[in-house]
Structures are given as structure tokens and as C-alpha cells.
């Protein structure tokens, strides 16, 4: 493809020195830069377009299953996404409320313009952080060490560590029907040169594809034909620091609307499949299975007579609406026709067509769990650059890359979250261990310990770490410790109080179809009954000395009600930890180990897992290979011991 | 860093059961198997012979030039062998002394003595067979009768693997549905996995695992043999009963009897049920040292037996010693054998019935072979009801590790049902369903656990 660049700068100049440079100011870049700066590093963040800081080129929403938990994890580590969405949401909903606590998921609709403005303002006001518009053309790398970046305007910035979070800008290409042009998200400039530089440095790049639906003018939607989906009245927040008093009432929130495609829509799509870049071979990139384009859905699920479409407002000061479920790269004309077949959209004016976008990805096997690259030291990558999709996934990696780049600049050791500690840990381990063949999205099913990785307890899991990293203030940490103490002491109290089989208790129990109590029962045991919650429990026992905060009550309930399951999960974590403790020597030569299957050998050689547990999670490495590897390492240790004797 | 490993040494072992068999086989496996064989073999050039050929020649002690044995030597080249390594098998003229001598020569010329189960371990490590298959091979070697052989072979074919994979697939379908409901809560594309549906599925898989476990009881007998003790005073006919059970035309797979006085166990095939006869040497000893055999010695044998054959002399009145033996075997699976019915009967049947709480009583005359068929039928019926067959298609679980895992999987499913009973949400109950899936995966080796391999291979005994 021809370059957009007409001419290059003739003379380069030396800019200031920084501790950390972050390339890209999307959801990964913002978290990375803020984390590095807040740890005390002089940080520079560069973006192709200052008006696209923390921009949402796709869904105007944050959270959902697994993703919402990541936002809370970022918050517990002192990150920004949770606070930012709490300040700019237009609707808040808790999903999966009918299910258990492990899978409850918070999701907000964002005012995408406010979200961007708020995040930009936060960056601008961060003392150690400089925000600047520039395109990075190349990295300064000497002897395998990354020392800085060179911009399209000729500036050379030096730093102790660099984070690349280029998103879909890396050699981005937008496709709408037969139309195809070099572009970053939403018609922004692409980063045309950085990919080539990465290839020269020896990186293996892959080509991924994602897409977005058309936007329509809300004044032309007939809402009477769609089903309203209002926000929740009960207060929810992403950030553990946000307070209930700022929560918007339902009438102050904006609703989403549900409608459906129909056979006519499908017929139009089928009749135009010869113009669909998805099927004509125009699109080379690999798209996500979990978020297929509408043409993909029609072809793969031909027997379905309709598909859900969610109409989502993009903000308070715009009439643009996002048609969730209609992601497409069909020609504009076809998109129009499709839209007009949908109930409620018969007269809708399309404001922007949907499009597919192809971009370069650094195959994530080239990364360490700190998100530092294996071949260039002091270089970190995060977000879509690593093959993920989603703002939350980006933010989760961004904060880890920023923390590790910041710690490198400070001369400190690596920071890694384990699979049993955070969804962020699951995601990064999946990426660096298994890699990904499609844009990676977090799912609760990817987490084997999801009961431990709940959305309600992200602060319990990570606040202490955030504090140690210097990202959580002493004040916030003290409040966290108070909460923790309150939970522990109430659980302890419930473990000591006995409920006697009084008439009142038995009336209550029998009213719920249960057998009356014969003997006294511990309050904690009583609380485990499905029809008992903390409030009903208080009818039968004395209230604690001081009334408890609702977040404390929530923890007491969950930790008591599901104690059995939680204990089982913790036991299985212990088992995993033993395997995690078996480290594979850095310089192991897989070629020298007989008996490992060829596929496994190639994978091991490529990924260089750090522990046996990690090795066992690599697809294509089977138990026999692990057994051989285990024996080999064991014998290496014995040989070493003998040698030293 | 240079790592050394013994994992891929060339190994050797005698792969036929110990004893004075017609032919013994010394097996060598590993990269140097051919080199080792060449040093001690005189015959055709082994480098030139084709793979999978058997070659006539002699084993020579290279240090003295002395001829040790006339042999047939098989050459099987990697990777199409059991261990996926080069394999040499030396078929020699049996006899402990000669076979041992050849093994020693093999070892002094570059091979190492194989550890128990090491050939199979290599087959497994080299990706030749999966976990349940490698265990089945061990069972096959230890199989005592045709019936148990069939159970072992079925498993080797992957029948158990197949069945387990089927169960896992069913569970996976359920899990996937639960997951979709969680990760895409608003999408109406998928039927919601309700408590009711989950209960139905869990109950169904539970039922199938229970059925599988029912075969385990019989499977254990088929594999390990039914530990049987013949108890009785001296001269009541234990010896002749034993000889009848061990009759020549019965297939006895292992331990050739009479080769050594140390053999404490012998196997008899009774209508397909392998009887492991405990303390047979004790019974044989009776001809030399009648007086030494008494209640004390019997006690040990009684304790370890699954089945007691209590032999009484029908031509004599009940003695105190008989009464003591009856008392000592109360509560055991027991058949009272009234022997010597060819002589005038003096034993009071009513008294026996009373003392033994109406146990199985059978009258025999070992000398005239009367009642012996009935005895065999009774044994078979006691442990294998007509309902259970070991036909070609039936999968029988015989391995202790598999049984353990199936029991845990069953428990996990019971936890699923218990969780549903106590009103736990589907996504929590699903944790136990996932555990069941993982446990079943361990049987086929589809999920890895650290302890698995170690435990597995330490269970193996020497041989293929």
C-alpha cells in the first residue's frame, strides 16, 4: 500500500530525556503512563492525535463479564479506568444478578466524548507526565537495549524504558466493501513506519482484524418498536473510591434499546455476499469468533431467523447511536439497506458506516509475563498491540506494562500477577503462554479460579500490592485495612453467636419451607441457607456495635455463604503453586532433550516457559512432554548437586 | 549447563515370567540396543538384517569366546516398535541360569538393568500409547485368565479411553452452555442452563460412572485374582482339592507351579475366575511335615483371603480343631467343602449348618471327582452374577488408579447435586462439574497433574 507520507523530516533533533516513554494514548497507553508517572518516573506519552486520548472507536461501554472485574483490578492497583468511567457513565447495570457472586458483572454505557475529555484532563494534570502529539516512526535500540524513540517530526527522545501501545494504528487499514485505505481507528492517521522497524528488530508480527457497526442518528430512530433497557436504580461503581451519593438516578441515566434483525435483513446480506470483504478474500487479518460481523453470523448460523441488536447512545451531547450486533464491512449502500429492514430503524439515517480494520500485532509469545519483549530489553508492549481486543483488556495490560517499565527505570524487580490473583494475571499468562490466533477477549471461563477472582473482592486481592507499588495512597490503604478488619471481625462474630430454636426463628424457617430447628445453630451456618441474608440474620441476633457499610456486609455474606466452594478453590490453588514453584532453567536447550514430541519441542523453544506449570498450559505440549521435562530438570539438579560435592 | 540423564539409556530385562519355561526372552531397548547385541551375538550381520526379522545364531561371551546359548534374535528398529526405540529380543532356551547369564552379558556390554515398568514408561513417554493404555499393558502382563486378558485387551484398545472421552464430551457440552450464559448474559441465542437441566445431566453422568464402577469390583478380581484359602485339618483332602483346581488343562498364565518351594501363590482358572490360591506351599508341605500345620498357620491365610474353602472330612465326626476353624472363618466369604463323601458319612449336616450359619455347603469326593464341578460353578456364581459378562464390547475398570479417580468423579457429581439441593447458583455448582471433567481427564491423561506420572510409574512391575 502506498504511504500517506509525502515527505520526511530532513533533520532530527534531540528532545528531552525521560524515564519512561509510552507510545499511544489509548486505554493501555493511558494506564501505562499514569502508573509509571505515579511511581515517580518522568514520563512522556505520545499520541497520533490528542483529540483521541482514551478514545472508544467501538462500543461506547466499559465492563461486562470478566472485563468489569479487570476494571476493578486496575482500580485496586491505583489505575484510572474505574474512576474515569464512574465520572462519565450514562448508564450503569449489574449483569448476571441471578447467578452467583463469582460471575456478577458490572457494565456501564459511557459518554465517549466525556470519557475521552476526562482522561485527557487527568493526564494533563499528572505532575510527572507530559502528553504530546507525535507519530513514533522507530525505536532507538542499541545492543538489544531499547533506549528511546524517534518521531515523525524528527524528535529523538531517550528513556530508560519504552512501552508500545499502538492499538489498531499499526499499519492500520480500513475496509468498507470494495473501499480500502490506510487508516487508524475512526479515520485517524495510521502508524505506517513503526511495524517495519519492529520487523527489522526481529519481531514476528501477525495481522489481526476487527470491526465496528454503523452509527445512526438517534432523532431518526422509532424507539416505540424497540424494547427499553434502563439502568439500575441500586448504586454501583467501578472504583472502590467512588461514593453512592454521586450515583445517577434511573431517570438521569440513558436507556439502551433492544431490537432484532429479521429474514429480510439476512436476505439482503446473503444477496450481497459477493461484495463482502470477509468472503471475497480481501480481508487477510484474523477476526474474533466471539464478536463476529453480521455477515459472518448469517453465514455460520444460517438457521437463525433473527439476531439481537442493542441500540446504545454514544453520549449526552450527541445523537449518534451505536448499533451493537451489526458489526460489518459491507459496502455503505448495503449497510443502509440492512439498517432499514430493522424494526425501529426503518427511517434511520446512517451517520458513519461500519468498517473492518486490519492491523499489526506483536505475536505475544515474544513477551515475558512482565510484558517486556524477550528480544529487546527495556521494551514493553500492551493492549491491542499484543493481540487482545477490548478497552478493559488494554487497560489491564497497560497498567502492568507501565508498572514494570516504571520499576525497570527505578532499578526494581518485576511485578507479575498470577492466575489465582487476578483476571489480568490470567489474561497475560494466556497471551504469553498460549498465544492467540484471534483478537483475545477475556471470558470468565478462561479463569480456573474465577470464584476467587470476583468483581466484589478485587480490592481484597490487590489493594495491598497497589500500595506496595506506590500507586495506592496511605490514606486509601488505611481505609482498605479498616474495611478488611470490619469484615474479619464480623465473620468471627457470626462464628461465635448461636441462634436458638426460638419460635420466631422456626416460624421464619418454616415459612421458607424448611424444617424447624431442634438445636441451636451458629449464625454463620444459618446464613448459608439460601433464603437467609445478612439483613434477615440481624432479626435473630444482636447487631454489631457499629452498623456495617454495605460493602462489608456484601463480603461477610459471600465469604460465609460460599465458604465451602471458596475453600475448595483455594486448595486447588495450593496444588498449582507447587507446580509453579518448579522453575525451568533459563538456558535450557530443548534440542538436547530426547523424547519430547516435535510440536512440543518447537513450542517450548518458542515460548520458553518459566515454570513447569506454565509449560503444562502450552497447547501442543502434552503430559508426556511435561513428564520428560520434569525428569530432565530433576536430573539436571541432581547432576549439579553431584558436581558441587 | 550440561545435563545428564538416565532417562534414555539403553535398558534390558528378562521379559518372560521367571521359572523353567520353554523359552525365555531377554529384551533390550534403546539407541545402543543393536551395538550391545552385536558384541555378544554370532550369526548374520545385525546391521544388514531388515527390521522385524528373527535371526538364528549364538550368544558368545566376548571376553572368553565361550558359547553360552543357541538363540533366535529379533531386530526391531525405531520408531515402529513398542518403545519407539530400537529393540532387540533374544529368545533363548529358558532356564534361569542361562537366561541370567545372557542378561548379565547384555548389561556388561552397555545396557542398564530396566526398572520395573520402564519399557512401558518409555512407550508412554515416547508418545506410543496414552496413559490408560500403558496401564492396561501392565494389566495384560499380569492377566491371570482369558477373561482377565480380555478385560485388559479391551482397555488397551482404548475402550475405556473412548468411554471416558464420551463422558467428558457430555460434561463439556454442559459446561460450555453454563459458560455462554455467564459470558453473554444478554444474548438469547443459547438456552439457559437451569438448575433443572444441570441436575438432569449430572444425574445421568453419575449413573454412568456408577455403572462403570460396578465393573471395578469384578475387574479387580479378574486382574488381581480372587484370594482364596483352602483351610482344614491335616488329611481332609486339601491337597487333592488344590490339585484338582490347578488341573493341567486349566490355563495358568503365570508362575509355573512346583519350581520352587518359595512360591506362596498359585493361580487357578475356575470358569474364567482367576483364583489366587494362598499358601499353597503350606498345603504341599503337609506331606513332609504334617504336624506343623495347624490353626495358627491358617489364621494368616484366612485374614488375607477373599474366599475361604473350608474342607471337612465327611467320614469323621467334627473335631475341636474343625470347630476352631469354623469359628476363625466366620464372617468371611466361605464355602464349606464336605470331602471324602465316597466313604461312610459320619458328619452331622445339621450341626454344620448351625455352626456355619447356613453357609454354602458342598459335598465332594476329590478322589472320585464328585461335586467338584458344582464347587466351581458356585465360586463363579458367588462373584459373578449371571448379569455381568465380559463380552467384547464391555468396558471393565480394573486399574486401582482409574477406580480412585472414578470414585472422586462420582463424588464431584454428588457435590453438584448437593449444591443444587442447597440452592447454590449454577455457576458455583458448575465448579464441581468442572472438577469431575478434570478427574475423568486424568484417567486418559488429558489433564496433567504433577503427582500423576510419578505415582503411575512407581506402580509398574517389570516387563513390557
Automatic annotation (TrEMBL), chain A:
Keywords: Cytoplasm, FAD, Flavoprotein, NAD, tRNA processing
Domain tRNA uridine 5-carboxymethylaminomethyl modification enzyme C-terminal subdomain: 560-631
Amino-acid positions noted as binding NAD(+) in the UniProt annotation, renumbered to this chain: 287-301
Cofactor(s) annotated in UniProt: FAD
Residues binding FAD: 24-29
GO biological process terms held by the UniProt record: tRNA methylation; tRNA wobble uridine modification
Subunit structure: Homodimer. Heterotetramer of two MnmE and two MnmG subunits.
Function in brief: NAD-binding protein involved in the addition of a carboxymethylaminomethyl (cmnm) group at the wobble position (U34) of certain tRNAs, forming tRNA-cmnm(5)s(2)U34.
Protein name: tRNA uridine 5-carboxymethylaminomethyl modification enzyme MnmG
Source organism of this protein record: Lentilactobacillus farraginis DSM 18382 = JCM 14108
Organism lineage: Bacteria, Bacillati, Bacillota, Bacilli, Lactobacillales
Gene: mnmG
UniProtKB/TrEMBL annotation, chain B:
Entry note: cofactor: Binds 1 potassium ion per subunit.
GO cellular component, one term: cytosol
PROSITE patterns attached to this UniProt entry: G_TRME (PS51709)
Primary residence: cytoplasm
Positions bound to GTP: 235-240, 254-260, 279-282
Cofactors demanded by this protein: K(+)
HAMAP family hit by this protein: GTPase_MnmE
Similarity section: Belongs to the TRAFAC class TrmE-Era-EngA-EngB-Septin-like GTPase superfamily. TrmE GTPase family.
Name of the featured protein: tRNA modification GTPase MnmE
Gene: mnmE
Amino acid at each position: 500500500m502506498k504511504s500517506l507520507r509525502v515527505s520526511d523530516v530532513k533533520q532530527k533533533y534531540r528532545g528531552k530525556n525521560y524515564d519512561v516513554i509510552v507510545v499511544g494514548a489509548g486505554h493501555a497507553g493511558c494506564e501505562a503512563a499514569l502508573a509509571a508517572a505515579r511511581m515517580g518516573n518522568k514520563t512522556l506519552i505520545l499520541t497520533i492525535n490528542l483529540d483521541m486520548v482514551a478514545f472508544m472507536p467501538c462500543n461506547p461501554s466499559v465492563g461486562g463479564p470478566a472485563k468489569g472485574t479487570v476494571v476493578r483490578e486496575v482500580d485496586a492497583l491505583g489505575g484510572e479506568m474505574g474512576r474515569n468511567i464512574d465520572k462519565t457513565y450514562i448508564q450503569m447495570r449489574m449483569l448476571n444478578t441471578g447467578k452467583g457472586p463469582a460471575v456478577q458483572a458490572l457494565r456501564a454505557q459511557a459518554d465517549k466524548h466525556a470519557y475521552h475529555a476526562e482522561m485527557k484532563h487527568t493526564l494533563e494534570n499528572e505532575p510527572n507526565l507530559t502528553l504530546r502529539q507525535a507519530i513514533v516512526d522507530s525505536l532507538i535500540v542499541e545492543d538489544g537495549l531499547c533506549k528511546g524513540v524517534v518521531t515523525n517530526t524528527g524528535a529523538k527522545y531517550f528513556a530508560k524504558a519504552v512501552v508500545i501501545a499502538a492499538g489498531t494504528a499499526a499499519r492500520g487499514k480500513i475496509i468498507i466493501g470494495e473501499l480500502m485505505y490506510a487508516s487508524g481507528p475512526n479515520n485517524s492517521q495510521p502508524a505506517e513506519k513503526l511495524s517495519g522497524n519492529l520487523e527489522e528488530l526481529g519481531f514476528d508480527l501477525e495481522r489481526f482484524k476487527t470491526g465496528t457497526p454503523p452509527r445512526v442518528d438517534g432523532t431518526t430512530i422509532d424507539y416505540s418498536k424497540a424494547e427499553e433497557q434502563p439502568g439500575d436504580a441500586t448504586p454501583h461503581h467501578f472504583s472502590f473510591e467512588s461514593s453512592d451519593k454521586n450515583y445517577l438516578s434511573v431517570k438521569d441515566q440513558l436507556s439502551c434499546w433492544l431490537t432484532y434483525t429479521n429474514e429480510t435483513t439476512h436476505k439482503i446480506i446473503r444477496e450481497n455476499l459477493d461484495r463482502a470483504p470477509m468472503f471475497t478474500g480481501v480481508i487477510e487479518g484474523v477476526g474474533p469468533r466471539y464478536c463476529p460481523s453480521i455477515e459472518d453470523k448469517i453465514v455460520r448460523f444460517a438457521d437463525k431467523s433473527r439476531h439481537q441488536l442493542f441500540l446504545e447512545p454514544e453520549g449526552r451531547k450527541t445523537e449518534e447511536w451505536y448499533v451493537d450486533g451489526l458489526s460489518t464491512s459491507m459496502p455503505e449502500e448495503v449497510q443502509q439497506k440492512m439498517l432499514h429492514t430493522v424494526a425501529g430503524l426503518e427511517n434511520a439515517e446512517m451517520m458513519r458506516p461500519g468498517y473492518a480494520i486490519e492491523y499489526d500485532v506483536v505475536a505475544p509469545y515474544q513477551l515475558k509475563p512482565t510484558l517486556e519483549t524477550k528480544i529487546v530489553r527495556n521494551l514493553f508492549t500492551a493492549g491491542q498491540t499484543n493481540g487482545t481486543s477490548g478497552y478493559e483488556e488494554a487497560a489491564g495490560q497497560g497498567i502492568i506494562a507501565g508498572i514494570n517499565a516504571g520499576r525497570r527505570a527505578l532499578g526494581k524487580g518485576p511485578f507479575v500477577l498470577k492466575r489465582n490473583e487476578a483476571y489480568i494475571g490470567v489474561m497475560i499468562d494466556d497471551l504469553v503462554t498460549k498465544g492467540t490466533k484471534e483478537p483475545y477477549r477475556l471470558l470468565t471461563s478462561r479463569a480456573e479460579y474465577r470464584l476467587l477472582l470476583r468483581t466484589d473482592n478485587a480490592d481484597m486481592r490487590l489493594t495491598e500490592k497497589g500500595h506496595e507499588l506506590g500507586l495506592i495512597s496511605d490514606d486509601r490503604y488505611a481505609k482498605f485495612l479498616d474495611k478488611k478488619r470490619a469484615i474479619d471481625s464480623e465473620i468471627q462474630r457470626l462464628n461465635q453467636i448461636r441462634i436458638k430454636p426460638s419460635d420466631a426463628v422456626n416460624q421464619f424457617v418454616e415459612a421458607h419451607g424448611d424444617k424447624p430447628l431442634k438445636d441451636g445453630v451458629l449464625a454463620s451456618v444459618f446464613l448459608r441457607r439460601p433464603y437467609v441474608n445478612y439483613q434477615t440474620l440481624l432479626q435473630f441476633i444482636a447487631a454489631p456495635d457499629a452498623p456495617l457499610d454495605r460493602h462489608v456486609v456484601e463480603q461477610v455474606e459471600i465469604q460465609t455463604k460460599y465458604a465451602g466452594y471458596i475453600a475448595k478453590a483455594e486448595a486447588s490453588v495450593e496444588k498449582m503453586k507447587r507446580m509453579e514453584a518448579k522453575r525451568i532453567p533459563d538456558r535450557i536447550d530443548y534440542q538436547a532433550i530426547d523424547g519430547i514430541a516435535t510440536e512440543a519441542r518447537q513450542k517450548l523453544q518458542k515460548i520458553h516457559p518459566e515454570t513447569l506449570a506454565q509449560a503444562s498450559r502450552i497447547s501442543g505440549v502434552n503430559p508426556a512432554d511435561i513428564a520428560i521435562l520434569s525428569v530432565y530438570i530433576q536430573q539436571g539438579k541432581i547432576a549439579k548437586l553431584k558436581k558441587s560435592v | 549447563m550440561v545435563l545428564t540423564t538416565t532417562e534414555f539409556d539403553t535398558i534390558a530385562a528378562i521379559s518372560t515370567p521367571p521359572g523353567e519355561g520353554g523359552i525365555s526372552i531377554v529384551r533390550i531397548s534403546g539407541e545402543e540396543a543393536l551395538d550391545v547385541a552385536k558384541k555378544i551375538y554370532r550369526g548374520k550381520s545385525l546391521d544388514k538384517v531388515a527390521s522385524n526379522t528373527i535371526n538364528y545364531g549364538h550368544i558368545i561371551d566376548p571376553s572368553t569366546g565361550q558359547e553360552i546359548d543357541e538363540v533366535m534374535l529379533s531386530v526391531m528398529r525405531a520408531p515402529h516398535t513398542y518403545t519407539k526405540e530400537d529393540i532387540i529380543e533374544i529368545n533363548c532356551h529358558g532356564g534361569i541360569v542361562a537366561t541370567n547369564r545372557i542378561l548379565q552379558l547384555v548389561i556388561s556390554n552397555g545396557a542398564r538393568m530396566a526398572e520395573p515398568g520402564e519399557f512401558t514408561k518409555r512407550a508412554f513417554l515416547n508418545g506410543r500409547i496414552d496413559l490408560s493404555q500403558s496401564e492396561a499393558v501392565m494389566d495384560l502382563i499380569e492377566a491371570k485368565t482369558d477373561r482377565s486378558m480380555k478385560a485388559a485387551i479391551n482397555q488397551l484398545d482404548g475402550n475405556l479411553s473412548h468411554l471416558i472421552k464420551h463422558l467428558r464430551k457430555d460434561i463439556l457440552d454442559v459446561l460450555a452452555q453454563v459458560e455462554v450464559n455467564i459470558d453473554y448474559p444478554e444474548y438469547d441465542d443459547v438456552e439457559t442452563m437451569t438448575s433443572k437441566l444441570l441436575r438432569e445431566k449430572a444425574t445421568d453422568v453419575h449413573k454412568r460412572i456408577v455403572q462403570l464402577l460396578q465393573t471395578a469390583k469384578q475387574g479387580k478380581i479378574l486382574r488381581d485374582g480372587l484370594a482364596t484359602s483352602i483351610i482344614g485339618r491335616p488329611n481332609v483332602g486339601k491337597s487333592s482339592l488344590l490339585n484338582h483346581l490347578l488341573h493341567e488343562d486349566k490355563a495358568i498364565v503365570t508362575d509355573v507351579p512346583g519350581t520352587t518351594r518359595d512360591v506362596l501363590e498359585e493361580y487357578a482358572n475356575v470358569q474364567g475366575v482367576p483364583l489366587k490360591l494362598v499358601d499353597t506351599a503350606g498345603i504341599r508341605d503337609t506331606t513332609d511335615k504334617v504336624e506343623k500345620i495347624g490353626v495358627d498357620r491358617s489364621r494368616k491365610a484366612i485374614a488375607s483371603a477373599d474366599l475361604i474353602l473350608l474342607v471337612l472330612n465327611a467320614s469323621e465326626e467334627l473335631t475341636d480343631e474343625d470347630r476352631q476353624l469354623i469359628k476363625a472363618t466366620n464372617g468371611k466369604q466361605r464355602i464349606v467343602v464336605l470331602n471324602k463323601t465316597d466313604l461312610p458319612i459320619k458328619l452331622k449336616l445339621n450341626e454344620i449348618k448351625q455352626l456355619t450359619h447356613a453357609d454354602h455347603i458342598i459335598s465332594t469326593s476329590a478322589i472320585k471327582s464328585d461335586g467338584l464341578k458344582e464347587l466351581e460353578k458356585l465360586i463363579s456364581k458367588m462373584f459373578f452374577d449371571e448379569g455381568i459378562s465380559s463380552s467384547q464390547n464391555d468396558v471393565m475398570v480394573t486399574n486401582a488408579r482409574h477406580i480412585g479417580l472414578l470414585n472422586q468423579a462420582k463424588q464431584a457429581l454428588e457435590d453438584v447435586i448437593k449444591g443444587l439441593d442447597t440452592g447454590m447458583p449454577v455457576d458455583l455448582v458448575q465448579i464441581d462439574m468442572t472438577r469431575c471433567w478434570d478427574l475423568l481427564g486424568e484417567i486418559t491423561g488429558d489433564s496433567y497433574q504433577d503427582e500423576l506420572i510419578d505415582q503411575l510409574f512407581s506402580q509398574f512391575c517389570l516387563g513390557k
